[in-house]
Amino acid sequence: MNDQILRLGDLEAEDGRFARFELIGWWDQERLRRARVAVIGAGAIGNELVKNLALLGVGNLFIADLDRIEHSNLSRSVLFRESDCGKPKAEVAARRARELYPQMNTASFDGNIVHDLGLGIYRWADVILGGLDNREARVAINSAAARTATTWIDGAIERLDGVARVFDPATGPCYECTMSEVDWKMLDARRSCALLTRDEMEEGKVPTTPTTSSVIAGIQAQEAVKLLHGLDVLAGQGFVFDGTHHQSYTVSYPRLEDCPAHEAYDPIEVLEESVATTTAAELLERARSDLGPEAVIEVNSDLLESLTCQACNVTQPLLASLGRVTESAGRCPDCDQPRTPNLYHTIGDRPELLALLENTLGELGVPPWDIVGARAGLESRYYEFAGDRGSVLGDLDHSPHQTSIAD
């Protein structure tokens, strides 16, 4: 009997961590070790995604979320503990992922991915996994994924139901192709008539259960594994789960040819410079050297130059990304009336914007490690500010396994 126990112990010792996975004929654990995966949203779905990726042995993981952990998260989030309340979701999820798989390299981003996360991370990732609770964030990810030619896998849950969808904007339908007129109206409702973010807009209050999030995140992670191995995935399709009646089925989405969200940035030139130290004038000079004297800079989202109170006839300079200014902050401090935002998304020879050229791109509201475009007529070029890469990726930037599976 003792000999039998010893033999079983020897077998277990020889059994590698991922031995059961490697019994699958096409499985390549080295691919997963080298893989770069970004999880956007670290709530109920995000927790399950991170847990699955750690158990699967994914080597490089970036997690982004803007929220802090609340008590209501504890019933739906396997990685969070009561002592974590008040801490950033992304940071705690990254730490717990390393506890599950100590060889995993992680980085976390505590901020708003719509306005504060540059396109560099999307270009870095082999696949993006979304665990989001609002349309605005999905539209932002979809646009970033299209511009960087990156496949992303969306997960959505409500009550006992959910859906997992794979979007490859370069070849098939994207998230915006699936949006109805009602979806766009609900997205517009998130902003005031002055286009500033509403303070009272409630987010992240979708009724759901941990069982539904585990089902949907499981499908998302499985599709990611297939994608990383070069297998067919549910591209342009959705896996729909009806948890009330335990029915599931797939649906296919049509590609809208007039959808503006399918065009990838090309060519992209990598600059070892930072948005914090590069002025708009310096980038414009570079663009005109590359494209000619008519070139202008094009940023990825509207930037704010100033706020004007029509009642007081007063304009206050304010440089920022539009999305970072709330509706209350947009009111006039003297008469409390809503002010009109003065916006721009191109920088060139407009007289009223010439003063902006001496500001750094970061001061204007361009996020770190972003990709900024330049255009002259029909010709375009794009510049990736890779000098910010280390500040975004942290220790993950120095991982020994930073070779993408595509390299």
Structure description:
- It is a single chain.
- The protein has helices at 2-14, 29-34, 44-56, 89-100, 120-124, 135-147, 181-188, 210-228, 280-291, 361-364, 389-393; strands spanning 36-40, 60-65, 105-110, 127-131, 152-158, 161-167, 237-242, 247-252, 268-271, 296-309, 314-321, 340-347, 371-376, 379-385.
- It has 407 residues and is an alpha/beta fold.
- The strands form 2 sheets. An 8-stranded mixed sheet has the order 3-2-1-4-5-6-7-8, sandwiched between helices. Strands 9, 10, 11, 12, 13 and 14 form a 6-stranded mixed sheet that branches.
- Strand 5 (152-158) and strand 6 (161-167) form a beta hairpin.
- Helix 3 packs across helix 8.
- Mean pLDDT is 90; it is low at 5-13 and 198-202.
Q: What's the helix and strand layout?
A:
Blueprint: H1 2-14, H2 29-34, E1 36-40, H3 44-56, E2 60-65, H4 89-100, E3 105-110, H5 120-124, E4 127-131, H6 135-147, E5 152-158, E6 161-167, H7 181-188, H8 210-228, E7 237-242, E8 247-252, E9 268-271, H9 280-291, E10 296-309, E11 314-321, E12 340-347, H10 361-364, E13 371-376, E14 379-385, H11 389-393
Parallel strand pairs: 1-2, 1-4, 2-3, 4-5, 9-14
Antiparallel strand pairs: 5-6, 6-7, 7-8, 10-11, 10-12, 10-13, 13-14
Helix pairs in contact: 3-4, 3-8
Helix content class: 25-40%
Mean pLDDT: 90
Radius of gyration: 23 Å
* Overall strand count: 14
- Tell me which oligomeric state these chains represent: single chain
Q: Identify low-pLDDT runs.
A: 5-13, 198-202
Structural class: alpha/beta
Shape, per Cα inertia axes: globular
State which percent range the strand residues make up: 15-25%
String of helices and strands: HHEHEHEHEHEEHHEEEHEEEHEEH
> How is the biggest beta sheet arranged?
8 strands, mixed
Q: Termini separation (Å)? A: 51 Å
Order the strands across the largest sheet as they lie in space: 3-2-1-4-5-6-7-8
H/I helix tally: 11
